[in-house]
Amino acid sequence: MRNCHYKEAFKRIPDERKERILEVGIEEFSSKGYENANINVIARKAGISIGLMYKYFSTKEDLFLTCISKGMSILEDALEEILASRDKLLVKAEKLIRATCELSRKNRNYIKLYNEVTAEKNSERATALAREIESQTSRIYITCIAQALASGDVRQDLDPRLFAFFFDNLLTTLQFSFSCEYYRERLKIYTGVDTDGLNDDEIVRQLIKFIESAFTFEK
Amino acid sequence: MRNCHYKEAFKRIPDERKERILEVGIEEFSSKGYENANINVIARKAGISIGLMYKYFSTKEDLFLTCISKGMSILEDALEEILASRDKLLVKAEKLIRATCELSRKNRNYIKLYNEVTAEKNSERATALAREIESQTSRIYITCIAQALASGDVRQDLDPRLFAFFFDNLLTTLQFSFSCEYYRERLKIYTGVDTDGLNDDEIVRQLIKFIESAFTFEK
Amino acid sequence: MRNCHYKEAFKRIPDERKERILEVGIEEFSSKGYENANINVIARKAGISIGLMYKYFSTKEDLFLTCISKGMSILEDALEEILASRDKLLVKAEKLIRATCELSRKNRNYIKLYNEVTAEKNSERATALAREIESQTSRIYITCIAQALASGDVRQDLDPRLFAFFFDNLLTTLQFSFSCEYYRERLKIYTGVDTDGLNDDEIVRQLIKFIESAFTFEK
Amino acid sequence: MRNCHYKEAFKRIPDERKERILEVGIEEFSSKGYENANINVIARKAGISIGLMYKYFSTKEDLFLTCISKGMSILEDALEEILASRDKLLVKAEKLIRATCELSRKNRNYIKLYNEVTAEKNSERATALAREIESQTSRIYITCIAQALASGDVRQDLDPRLFAFFFDNLLTTLQFSFSCEYYRERLKIYTGVDTDGLNDDEIVRQLIKFIESAFTFEK
DNA sequence: GATGAATGAGGTTTCATTCAT
DNA sequence: GATGAATGAAACCTCATTCAT
């Protein structure tokens, strides 16, 4: 995440206030969606005046983008730590899946915000956001798999880019399935169990099985 | 999809007009999102008065839901035909993946509409929509895998419900990756190639590999 | 009531249908008020098409006026019978009061309609309505009192017109107090008892006392 | 009148502006009725934007209720002053009648607003309004008559509650007869004279006679 | 820097009335 | 005579943004 969507003034205020504004913003945007979120309400809940809000952010959109920056980098950081380890691919994968479950339970707001972003209709904004959010993670995923390929740890005819893509697709939907209303109900329909009542271990185990050798005869 | 969200009057009009209204509605909702879609614009583009629109649908939301019903049942029908075949699981899977690619290219609007639905923030509506949209498909997926399990075609320690879930997750994100702005850019970031320039065959082949024996040593 | 507000076509239809249309109209106008009544709904409830409604009445207002004509003449008829009798004034008054109570309990709709009319804001319409509705009754009241005056039955220094006016004021508010929501609650506040639980006899007796010699020393 | 129907922001503005908004509102509501009054017009005439109007009042209804509060308390205050005096009952009554005439001529808008309220069709709102508006006045009227009863100033077999009710009925209709279109024409029909041309003294004198010993033989 | 009062365009929804069949 | 589909003006209300203090 490089682009910065706040004004100079926002940089100068105490971290605590920064934090409060963005937390309230994330809460509002993630629970109501971009259109239904109300910037006047966000200002009030954050304990600052609406005038000051506009000293910090030029538009509602900029506030939204700054909230996203914060939310996404928190999510990224958690996963990148794991990706940076020297574990073998499947071990990393398992750790990532487990971390994804935990992260989703703890940070529903951030995930919902991410979900909101993925539904962006405006082409320009969507493209810019995808670049901001997905570039780094994708690079790391691809590198990991490429390394596994080089060291002969995985089948040689796989395409690292597409496999990284598929794997991230699974993690992404898993996140949503823990956090976002529609996906939560969908998971419940598939498993027959409420998301909150699900056993993470079982999901991790099955997902590992799935990517390890889904739909193949048992050996 | 059972629930019906239009009024009696809508049932009585010629199919051609029904079609036009819903097509325009789907175009508007999928390109701008629910909040930014404008019913007056939809009415005008569909060539009817706004008053008549309200003779057909009680609220903007009902029009939206009817658009969704139409869009989703078209998508479902295409996939269920394949699911009903007597092919072996992996063959079915391949057909499904290929059909998903084609469907997504041809019906971007419907997929975008589905994507809009998955981002629904209102808990009640999200739950109701998930039930309407996911119930039948999930049941079929689960049944297919359960049958494969019974006939020994797949590894015996998999959970049919979770595997169906994971597989559908892959199809869903694949759909989005062909149709929705954010996901399209994300796919481009992963593959390095613009979605329109992608070779479906390669994606199908790699995805089959992925679910067949992802992350396992080549034999 | 002389003026007629319906079209030729309305005259020609069977009485039963006339009756039904006006009854439904009275029900709708009296329960929702003129503005909130919906002529399309009235047509549907009366079992005729809206097109036909406009064959019978040029405008919503004309339907309203015709409903009023019907409602008011029913109320008038009941009272005029009493007024036409040869009883002495106080006897007539008592009969009128008692009849008013009964009438109000039985014909809440008509009274509410009358109440709606008395709140008419448009000066022209208000004037025309008052003339249509009040002329005859007022004339009879005045005549009665003038006759009582001539025969020495009442104090000689009263003005028949004003006394008729005051007396009718009391009857009118009494009607409203039995039928119209606001006035019903107001009566409850004054008496401490719900209108439905009130004893008509007591009201009649007290009202007779009131007009007979209110606020004077007992002899 | 206790309940408050405006927002905090309305409390904070200068009295002059408060006054202007409510005066314009009362003018609009009383001349057109609740349904036909237009808040955008009220805002424009009051010299404020519609947005600001909604900062002061949550809904059209709340603006209406606040207008009523103002109008009714002005009317109440004028009468309560008289009621609080130590005059004998008939003296008080005469003062009240005379004040009612004057008040009605000077405050036609307020009376018309009150008239609008008395025609409220919605049961809940009607009940709430009656309680807000009638409770205090009724209590005072009843007390006055009860005191007169205790001191032997009036006939001993009257019911204070009903007599208060009847007396207030006369004052209420008198008010309407000076202010509201329908009632004005009705008064003209009864008296033969236009309301504006009426001599208040004569009305006061006759009404006092009416309540003092209506319909009784002269002694 | 900080405030919050003020703006006003724009969207959803209603319903009296028309008119082709 | 009878139908009811169709019209479209108009009203309430929201909220991003500005700016005087």
Description:
4 copies of one chain form a homotetramer. By secondary structure, chain A is mainly α. Chain A contains 11 helices and no strands. The first copy, chain A, has helices at 8-12, 15-36, 39-46, 50-56, 60-84, 89-106, 108-118, 123-150, 160-179, 181-191, 200-213. Chains in contact: A-B, C-D. Chains C and D meet through helix 2, helix 6, helix 7, helix 8 and helix 9 of C and helix 2, helix 6, helix 7, helix 8 and helix 9 of D. Chain D binds a DNA duplex (21 and 21 nucleotides) through helix 4.
Secondary-structure map:
The structure is a homotetramer of 219-residue chains.
Chain A (H helix, E strand, L loop, with lengths): L7 H5 L2 H22 L2 H8 L3 H7 L3 H25 L4 H18 L1 H11 L4 H28 L9 H20 L1 H11 L8 H14 L6
Helix pairs in contact in A: 2-3, 2-5, 2-7, 5-6, 5-7, 5-8, 6-9, 6-11, 7-9, 8-9, 9-10
Chain D binds a DNA duplex (21 and 21 nucleotides) through helix 4.
Salient structural properties:
globular; DNA-binding; homotetramer; 11 helices; mainly alpha
Structural class of the helices, strands and pairings of chain A?
A: mainly alpha
Number of strands of chain A: 0
Oligomer: homotetramer
What count of helical segments of chain A does DSSP give? 11
Short description:
Four copies of one chain form a homotetramer. The first copy, chain A, has 219 residues and is mainly α. Chain A is built from eleven helices and no strands.
